[in-house]
Amino acid sequence: MSVTVQALRGVRTRTAGAGRCSNLAPQLALVVLLLASWDLLVRTGVLPASGAVRLSGIAGALGDVVFTAALWTAVGDSLTSWLVGLAVCVLVGVPLGALLGWRDGVYRSVRLVLEFVRATPPVVLIPFVLLFFGPSQEMKIFLVVLGGVWPILIQSMYGVHDLEGTLVHTARAYRIRGPRFFASVLMPTVLPYLLTGARVSAVLGLLLTIGSEMVTSAPGLGRAIFDAQTSNDLAGMYALVVVAGVIGLLVNTVFTVIERKVLSWHPSQRPVTS
Amino acid sequence: MAPLAAPGHVLTWRAFGRLPRLALTVARELWFAVVVLALWWVLSSGSTSFYFPPLSEIWARFQELWLFDRVPTDVWPSLRNFGLAIVLSCAVGIPLGVVLGSLRRVREIVSPVLGFGWALPKLALLPAFIAVAGIGDGMRVSFILAGAVWPILLGAQDGVRAVDPGLRDMARSYRFGRGTLLFRVLLPAAAPQIFAGIRTSLAIGLVLMIVGEMLVASSGLGFFVLQSQQSYALVDMWAGALLIGMLGYLITLLFTVLERFVLRWHFARRAMHAAG
Amino acid sequence: MTSIKGDAVAGATRPSLDTVMAADHVAFSYSSAAGAHPVLGDISFTIARGEFVSLVGPSGIGKTTLLRVLSGLMQPTAGEVRLDGERVTEPPRQLALVLQDYSRSLLPWMSIERNVALPLRSAKVARTEVRSRTAAALDAVGLAGDSEKYPWQLSGGMQQRVAIARALAYQPEVLVMDEPFASVDAQTRFDLEDLVLRLRREFGMTVLLVTHDIDEAVYLSDRIVVLAGKPAQVADCLDVPLGPIRDQIATKALPEYAALRGRVLSEIRAASAARTDKKVG
């Protein structure tokens, strides 16, 4: 019966692919509907005029702000601290996680402390980090690392733990060592875990970057949003929120695409038929 | 990996062997935490550093503040808002996720909007929430809700999507009603992924709660920690941070216990497959 | 292949007062972007009350598709399926399904007892009756002592027994089974085959079995419907006059058994050879 099942799957994926095109119109319609209902809610006064801005106002502000150097400086500041923080997360998290994954005893020993630190929301240290570093890039990077290192560390631990299972023994049996071991056994096993960890860390890091900018007035997009609100430039504020959303979407898309490209062979990337 | 023991030896060996083994397990889990705390206590004991006050002082202040003087004013409102937002997130996210998971066409149409909602760094929305909803508890709850609902919704959606077609055939051929299909088949099947979503929501919700309180509130834990720092009461700040850490850990722990109980079939089955 | 044409196959349809299930010129094709993709073409046969009928055919012929159409999970693109004279548009109440993949049809979050009882509860059967029917069904398949266990705690063969017990407790007129023993080892398979034969005698059920295993079909059935061709059609229909009581050793040693087995096998071979010739030509 396997042939029939295969044929069925083929049909399913094909219709799904064909569906993507025909969905564009309703997808757009939904977006337009949501935007229009926002506009209606503002116009009819259901949302207070003191807080909400009509679509035309937001669009106008967005058009204005995109051409200002201030916006791109702010975006640059945010992305720089985010990226540097993420790099440090990888540099610290991967080896530490590997150490914990390699020896079960080590993991058991530190589990309690690890879980405690991980369960603590990193933002509680914003006040302290602010005192230490001032409202600077270093402060933001420190926070991103503090909050973002855990997903990578945990995933690296799981990955190495997985490696311990059967593959290492197979590799040993076939005397695969050195660079070949690294390329054909270590990386394919651990990489899926690391990419998942990196994606979660990236999203969390972006959240922390923007949050710390809002609380501490360190330069960046978060501060710009908060400044716009306090100076009552509501249209400008909404425009910046849209920019933040687009950046979030880009980050998410980039990581999803990387995962899909690098791990096209991996079971987690196979399409779910439903 | 069941322990091997000759039948005749089991009773005697267990009677003597169990207690030390349990003690060993506990010791293995605890020693590092004890060492870290002890080091912190000893190294900070004579500290005159402005940033790192002695742990003994922090602990004394912790007891003064949180056992249970300021619990009604600062801890309870925070936790109430947080809890309410998580419950509402489940109430909104699970039904919506189940519907989207079941209806492919609707899911495909909604997915760009969902993707944007999921990817938007939620903290950026805070000023907009303040502008529209003011700074009351209603705003704080809805702000946490706006961030915490996504992982639950996506978890429920993916969980229902992944329900085995074989199970759906079975349910149809036995003519299960909608209620049976939903509560006996779809929801239990999606439960592991829904729980994973709630776990993420708890972490995100806690962050949003604290930042929200730092920026707009006049009470609550986030407010307390930031205010302590601004008035250079570093001991208070550390005591507050310690409490938040403990609460975060406790919430995660309680949730893990609940998850282990509700999904005991899932964990038992997984353990069995892992054992081969 | 010209002789193969629905009603033309002798013995496939037997007009009788006691017809339970009838496939009447059933055809099915998938539609995709590339156009219609026919799987079943003009299939007709009937099943009498109390009969054990097997549908056999080579892998990939569309047996599972036919089964899904017969059980009401899919609608035929032409023709109709009737059960007790009524057209099947949804899975009917009188029918219970046992699928090949037991691990995917039992609910891992419910004990075996609750798995067996679930269809009855869903149908709002009285509580005491649910309990007695569940207990009787589990007893009949030899799982009375395991009712509190979970499916994943059992071996594959035992899980398939649970699926059979669930069907029994449902008290269907027709038991439809799709390759039910394909995922278990040989010894378990013999045990399950004998179990099904015994249950069928005890409960007087009508059974429709879909299988690619010719031995299994001959050993179990009263009648065998052979499918062949692309799109699949009824190539032949033959009676199996081996009596109601069968034995894994004695029955399989009978010359009639070997003759029938040989006949079905050569027909399937001829059909697939004809298919290959057609493709080449």
Helix proportion of chain C: 25-40%
Specify the CATH architecture of the largest domain in chain B.
Orthogonal Bundle
Largest sheet of chain C: 6 strands, mixed
The CATH topology of the largest domain in chain B turns out to be: MetI-like fold
Task: Give Rg of chain B in angstroms.
Answer: 24 Å
Give the overall shape of chain B: flat
Please name the fourth-level CATH homologous superfamily of the largest domain in chain C: P-loop containing nucleotide triphosphate hydrolases
Distance between the termini of chain C: 14 Å
Task: Label the structural class of chain C.
Answer: alpha/beta
Strand content of chain B: under 5%
Count, helices of chain C: 8
Largest sheet of chain B: none
Q: In DSSP terms, counting alpha (H) and pi (I) runs of 4 or more, how many helices of chain B?
A: 11
Query: How far apart are the termini of chain B?
Result: 10 Å
Q: Would you count the extended β strands of chain C for me? A: 10
Q: Provide the low-confidence segments of chain C as ranges.
A: 1-7
β-sheet strand percentage of chain C: 15-25%
Tell me the name of the CATH class of the largest domain in chain C: Alpha Beta
Structural class of chain B: mainly alpha
Overview of this protein structure:
The complex is a heterotrimer of chains A (274), B (276) and C (281). Chain A has helices at 2-22, 24-43, 55-66, 69-102, 104-119, 126-133, 137-164, 167-173, 178-216, 221-230, 234-262. With 274 residues, chain A is an all-alpha fold. In chain B, α3 (71-102) crosses α8 (178-216) and α9 (221-230) runs antiparallel to α10. Chain B has 2 domains: 10-42, no CATH class; 55-275, MetI-like fold, CATH 1.10.3720.10. Chain B is mostly helical and 276 residues long. In chain C, the strands form 2 sheets. In chain C, strands 6-7-8-3-9-10 form a 6-stranded mixed β-sheet, sandwiched between helices. A 4-stranded antiparallel β-sheet of chain C has the order 2-1-4-5, covered by helices on one side. Chain C is globular. Residues 1-7 of chain C have low confidence and may be disordered. Chain C has 2 domains: 6-94 and 172-280, Rossmann fold; 106-170, no CATH class. At the A-B interface, α2, α5, α6, α9 and α10 of A face α1, α4, α5, α8 and α9 of B.
